[in-house]
Amino acid sequence: MKEDLINLGFTDRVLQEASLYPDLYLGRVIAQSKDVYTVATKKTKLLSEIAGKLRHSITDVSGYPSVGDFVMLDREEDGSGHAIIHNVLTRKSVFMRRAAGTGHDVQVVAANIDYVFICMSLNNDFNLRRLERYLSIAWDSGATPVIVLTKSDLCNDLPRKLSEMRSVSTGVDLIVTSSLVEGGYSTIKTFISPGKTVAFVGSSGVGKSTLINRLLGEEVLPTKELRKDDKGKHTTTRRELIILPGGGAVIDTPGMRELGVESVNLDKTFTDIDELAQQCRFKNCQHENEPDCAVREAIEQGLLSQERLNNYKKIKHETNYEGLNSRQIEKQKNEKMFADFGGIKNARNYIKGKNR
Fold first, then answer.
1. Residue 54's domain is classified under what CATH number?
2. N or C: the chain end with fewer CB closer than 10 Å?
3. Strands in 262-318 per DSSP E
4. Any bridge partners for residue 60, and if so which?
5. How confident is the model at residue 8 (pLDDT cuts 50, 70, 90)?
6. How far is CA 356 from its chain centroid?
7. Distance between CA atoms of 25 and 330, rounded to whole angstroms?
8. How many angstroms separate the Cα of 14 from the Cα of each of 9, 21, 216, 308, 322?
């Protein structure tokens, strides 16, 4: 049972915060279906719903419990009706995206994760611009991104694609896998251990469910063949946290071909552009027609692609970071994050008071 609790992520940090609620019980959200949550406790799995008081205190969609969240319940065993979620504990990381076609509505993909496995197949799904989007969100989440390239057996120009991939993913581990070769997925096991949680994200049909089935040692998650146009079919329809027999947990997510960005880390994703921008004559250089623009010079010398700069600007525009440097972006994100507390200083005082 102790190993199961570790694999659920009940670390000392989580247990310490849970102790602030002596009349409630700790659990972790492992699945969600509309307003009903499946929560794993140290004794069982419970169907749960959030308390009315908690619902009224939530100011935006991201405040609702999501898969991976640690929550405090009114019980830890089955009873009459659904268990009630009274509190959501502090998230150490959260992968969020702007829901497609909904303006500024935010969707929490997974919470309290250690690694984000960005899965991309080496066939028609291969897309550097989409990868940059995933990396921007993953770095901002607080988790560590890892690129997992699937279906290497379908790729005829692997060295070229790996070179292109490395040019836009500085500092990120890159794993090449194949479902057809024995042990062709074993490298990903090095990132998964007791107490660690990994979220698999990517487009439909890239092989996320296949990889998780290999880790489980059995065909638990449904998989389907690609369509005739080489695009994936949707197999995973909801997010779900799964405990692995060898230790650790994984979160399978539905395919996301469209990825709206809400909050990003451009400094780590576009390190090359950020470093070049510091060499520009003007601090607020837009890298268009300004004199002595180091970014434009790099493009003219073939050291940076115009497509990468265009994507950088596009993501900046979508997140309302246009015209800001990395330090200004971080300041704006912090002000937005702690707006409900009246600023960072008030938020720190609140946290100190809560921990007394």
1. 2.40.50.140
2. C
3. none
4. none
5. confident
6. 32
7. 36
8. 8, 12, 26, 40, 37
Percent of the residues in the chain that have a pLDDT greater than 70, as a whole number: 78
Q: How many domains does the chain have?
A: 3
Q: Are residues 32 and 123 in the same domain?
A: no
Lowest mean pLDDT among 54-63, 282-291, 305-314, 341-350: 341-350
Using a 10 angstrom Cβ sphere, with 0-12 exposed, 13-18 middle and 19 or more buried, the burial of residue 338 is: middle
Q: At what angle do helices 306-318 and 128-141 cross, to 10 degrees?
A: 50
Q: Count Cβ atoms below 10 Å from residue 191 Cβ, excluding itself.
A: 17
Who wins on pLDDT, 105 or 272?
Answer: 272
What is the Cα–Cα distance from 74 to 83, expressed in whole angstroms?
Answer: 6
Check whether residue 74 and residue 195 sit in a common domain. no
Task: Please indicate, yes or no, whether residues 84 and 100 belong to a single structural domain of this protein.
Answer: no
Q: In this structure, are 83 and 142 located in the same domain?
A: no
One domain for residues 152 and 43: no
* Domain extent at residue 110: 94-252
What size, in residues, is the chain? 356
Residue with tokens 């205190």: 57
d(CA 236, CA 103): 24
Assigned domain for 83 exists? yes
List C-alpha distances in Å: 310 to 263, 304, 327, 335.
Answer: 18, 11, 21, 27
Task: Give the domain CATH number at 298.
Answer: 1.10.40.50
Per-residue model confidence (pLDDT) at position 232: 41
Q: What is the C-alpha separation between 184 and 187, in angstroms, rounded?
A: 8
